[in-house]
Amino acid sequence: MKKILQKTVLVSAVSLATLSAQKVMAIDNSQTSSNSSSISTSKESSSSNSVILDNQIKEKNKNNSESQSVIQDSTILKQNTEIGPGYYADDKLTTRSALVRTDTQGFIDHIRAGAIAGWNKYGVLPSVSGAQAILESSWGQSLLATEGNNLFGIKGEYNGQYTIMQTQEFVNGQYITVNAKFRKYPSWNESIEDHGNFLASNSRYNNLLHVTNYKEVTRLLQSDGYATAPTYATSLNRIIEQYHLYDWDNSVMDVNSADLNAAIVEGNHIHVKGWHVNSKAANQQNSFLFLLDANTKAEVKRYRIQRKNRQDVKNAFPNVTSALNSGFDEEIPVTDDMYGRKLVVMSRYSGDINGNLNNTDYLFNNNVISFPDATASHLDTFKIANNKIEITGWHASTASRTAQSSYLILMDASNGQEYKRYKITRTARPDVQAAVPYIYNSLNSGFKLEIPITSDMHGKTFKVISRYASQDNGQGSLSDVNFDQTIGLNENISSINDGWMDANMLHVRGWHAIDDIANKPYHTLIFMDASTNSELSRTTVTNTQRPDVQQAYPNIANSLNSGFSADINLTAKMKGKKIYVLSRYSKTANPNQDFIDSRLSRDISTFSTNESAENVGNIDELTSNGATLKVRGWHAANATKGKQYHFLILMDRNSNQEIKRIKVTNEKRTDVRAAVPYLYNSLNSGFNTNISITNDLKGRYIYVLSRYTSDSAGNNNTVDYLGNKTLLVK
Question: How confident is the model at residue 398, as a pLDDT?
Fold first, then answer.
């Protein structure tokens, strides 16, 4: 077993085999009150005939026999060589058996004088000394107690007197049995008084001297390392309570003891509950509770109270006349001067009706009541919807007690200047009250506001402030919360719906929506070389309506009038290039000053064919009835000689990728023959076909490529003509 020595440990005077288990039990038996945790205990007969070892202690000792012994406050202990094998939870040191008690009250009466002498001379609480004597000596029946009147197992000599007994010591990692001198006393009273001297002369126990609360003393004994058994303090407390040994304490001192059961903030009140017993209360008939500043101990509030009955306290202090009427249970209103402070409670008995003279106080210094910051808040919603700014949230503040008005203030986030303020009426927020009940107006702390978006808001970014003000116009801030969230009315979104080049023209359609349209009303499309990022051309456009864009972006200022469409002639430097488009809004007709750009999402590429003067054609008709496409036209070329297959290929205008192809049979076109009689197949150059609309066609802009080829699959040795019509398939 691993145990660590902490200076000196006082142990039992029991001799080896009959030792600790016998002494464990007058108390840890089946007759002991189960309500050991409460103040109140039931008085038990002092003439019980048997002692049964507590089963719980048995089990703990069994489980811990080969492990570290760890007690309250993490103290790890080892048997001290100055004393005998005391109250240890270790099977190596104890023999467990039942012990018959013959005269418990006689033993108690016998040791009372010595216990009181130990208090008067050394400051060791009498009830604790008596309980230790009972526990350590098994009611005075241990071998050491009967032969040497040694109730506590202290080694050495007393006035030259000693007795030799076997004991166990831990040497080289194991317990060995040795013969040792133990002090021999004339009577038990000298043993108890010497026990007080032992504690007083060992500095490790100085913290328990003159302490008047027996539970505190037993706790300190255990944490200071007096015994390794984790139930040691509990066992002493049971003995004290069962045999009313606290009466000894009451007989030698003025009682001024108390406990604070509750000191918590509940809504707008502080619930304070507890008890305060005072042996001088008969001459101090006035009772008060005080709230003191926890740091300065300055009085904040005092409240005259009527004490309440506490039978449990009376049971613990039966010799104190006022113990029954020692309780208090009060609801103290929360006031403004409590916020931002830490408070403690003090109970007072006073001989003065105002509580200022002939007082006995008890300060509950360890029970601090903290009041959080007097302001709490949250911005639940700050967004744009349906062309309005929506703001919801809450702001609770003790300052609202004296506020004349509440406001939400929109701030320009770019310069920190106020844009506009809006007077509001706070709304009920029971959820906030549940979360922060200690703040005065938490129930009515909510806000909800919708602000219509006006043209002067566009291009700005906003923040919001919640304010309680001392004036009706919102001046005189009592409490401001500046929320961090922002919303912007400076959206800049665009898209290209269609963009392509044919032999002579570049075609582009799309939309560009911005919030700052009021300041930038001029719209220009700029065509850029994608490889060099240099400008190739530009054109001014007039916007058109796009209800679909407005539906998707209802909060952008010009979403309804964001559409554009342009068809420009291809210049020589534009042909064969990949081109992207910048859509630009500017403040003036000069698009190079004070502008905002958006690059359209897709580039436009040239589609190459082998068209020439000897390869011409036309798409006369490209229409849809919802079920089929009607494609009619002609394609004549000298190079068609030897190319017996003719395909019509449907192309995606935006990607210039093939969607599908069909093989057609040419028909006569005398009008084409008359126009280009010199081309090989001009008479039989016509085509006229219907194509079923499938899902892969729907929603696309399409154009037609006519191809002659000698390859039955239509992929090699081709002559192509690029149709000049585009259709959106619906």
Answer: 84
Task: Please list the ranges in the chain whose pLDDT falls under 50.
Answer: 1-81, 85-100
pTM greater than the 0.90 cutoff: no
User: Angle, nearest 10°, between helix axes 214-224 and 126-137?
Assistant: 50
- Rounded distance, CA 626 to CA 690, Å? 12
CB 530 within 8 A of CB 576: no
pLDDT in tens, 457-467: 887 899 999 99
The end-to-end CA distance of the chain, in Å, is 88
3 state SS of 448:
strand
**CA proximity to 89, closest of 227, 181, 240:** 227
Of 14, 16, 35, give the one whose Cα is nearest residue 25: 14
- Rounded distance, CA 252 to CA 215, Å? 17
Q: Report the distance separating Cα 555 and Cα 453, nearest Å.
A: 8
- pLDDT for res 330: 96
CA distances from 39 to 110, 240, 261, 363 (A): 27, 12, 12, 20
List, as one string, the DSSP characters of 54-115: -HHHHHHHHHHTTS--EEGGGEE----TTB-S-S-S-TTT-----B--S-HHHHHHHHHHHH
Give the 3-state secondary structure of residue 29.
coil
The whole-number pLDDT of residue 63 equals: 34
